[in-house]
Write a structure and sequence with these properties.
Distance between the termini: 10 Å
Helix content: 10-25%
Strand content: over 45%
């Protein structure tokens, strides 16, 4: 498992016109997780792994939930 810091998004927009991330907010909260959708949902307190979309970058995991930008996890290992 890898250690990640959670960064939440301030999201603007709506379902019809689309969403954009206005700001990225560091939380100071850390989780240890693998990169499976079920593990990410459980660690982030989300209820449906079928609603999660995950994009992997070098040291960042970008997470959308139910079609909306949700947060990013930054690798702290």
């Amino acid at each position: 498992m890898t250690k990640y810091e959670i960064f939440y998004y301030d999201v603007w927009g709506n379902e019809e016109e689309g969403y954009s991330v206005n700001d990225v907010i560091p939380t100071g909260d850390f989780i240890f997780t693998d990169t499976s959708k079920s593990s990410l949902c459980k660690k982030l307190g989300l209820d449906d792994p079928y609603k999660i979309d995950v994009l992997f970058s070098e040291d960042v995991i970008y997470i959308d939930y139910d079609g909306k930008p949700y947060c990013e996890l930054r690798n702290k290992d």
